[in-house]
Design a protein that fits this description.
Number of domains: 3
Strand content: 15-25%
CATH architecture of the largest domain: 3-Layer(aba) Sandwich
CATH topology of the largest domain: Rossmann fold
Order of helices and strands: HHEHHEHEHHHHHHEHEEEHHHEEEEEEEE
Structural class: alpha/beta
Distance between the termini: 95 Å
Number of strands: 15
CATH class of the largest domain: Alpha Beta
Largest sheet: 5 strands, parallel
Shape: globular
CATH superfamily of the largest domain: SGNH hydrolase
Radius of gyration: 26 Å
Number of helices: 15
Strand order of the largest sheet: 2-1-3-4-5
Length: 458
Amino acid sequence: MWGRVIRQMSGKKALIRSVVFLLVLGVSIYLLQGLFAYDDEYTFENQTGMMHEKRERLDGVYIGASNVYYYWQPLFGWMDHGIAIRNFCGNSLRPAALKYYVMEAEKRQPNALFIININTFKYYDNLNLDAKNIHRAVDYMPLSMNTLRLTHDLTERSSYKGLERLEFYLPIIRFHSRWDSLSPWTLGASDVDYKSSLHAANFLEGKKDITKKYRLYDTEEPFSEDMQRALEDLLDYFDAHKLKVLFVKVPQALIKKRQSYMKTAQKIIEARGYPILDLYDKFSEMEIDMRQECWNERHTNLHGSVKFSWTLGNYLVEHYQFQDKRGLPEWADWDRSAKQYAKLVDQYLLPFETAHAARTFTDIPVLRKPKVDGQSVTLTWEDTGNVSGYLIYRKRKAGKDLTWHEVAQVDAVCRQWVDEGLSPRTSYSYRVVPFISANGERTYGSFDIGDVSVRTAA
């Protein structure tokens, strides 16, 4: 009898050990998912950042693809208005994923305003998604039934079948050998939290003239039944859950077909009675200079984003009952993040940009190569037309103070200025800004965001 009892106890211990082993294995695989996933830092930051935000604290959640986080910077919204609106998006996110993102965000922020980017509907359909589209959409989402349904839905729309689809449920299958490409952000090593505000080099310093490619088309072209179903499912979910919703359309240089698909989506949304903020043809009204304030045809750079974030923030404050939470103890983390982000972007922005001073379009002063004579620098530029004068801005390229400072103001007839008494063996950057004065007010003109740099002699 005792032998049977001992065997039963041994069997129970073995079962318990097996269960514990499986639990440990499952938790380990889950924790490794974030490491061995598609390599996309900004998708990671936008998804995990929103999910780690305190529950029921956000004013809004902005959902879409990269045309969300290249335009709206949460910390600009905070610095300008004291509103907390985070991005929850993925690079190249397709409309079929939008409902699932809303569902996931609603779990954490049920009282938030759900802002949906209409530009996400610029595709004909959601079918034949390739691997990177699916991985970007699901790899950094939390483990939940909602994420499993999202993965199933997207893989159903792809050419991956059977066991091929397993890599999207367990991305470690595909990326398990990625040890040599693991980045610090993957390991969570950074102590800087920009609240998913963009800090990519191409965003901070890149520029492209898109004036030749920016065209407006007022046509509609039906997209596929699959796209129609994805949009209707999203709107049905909003109807059923009585959520606060705003659709936003951002300006991009898109071909006629893609603009037509977006028009079709916009018509369906309007017919269902949901509000739309259409900024597609508002480059000029937002004072975004298409010659150099976009990174490429589809995204703004830092300078354009400042203006877009100001425009959207003003609209949200005017139309929704958001309180200014700057300086409140329970929001100290947002204040702290804003200071960190300001320190970063002040290396690239002139003071009047973040102050949202009056702007106008003028010719851009073309700076010739500066002349260095010991500790003096001579700047020379070309005429920009009918302006009142020029402001000279300077910053150091290294050291503690990397911000821009106004160092001189010269008359409109002036084409040259000498900066004297500089430190030896020091690198400096310069910008020349035209301005117009009228009725006691100063309006700032266009300037070259690609500043010129020099190094003084010993």
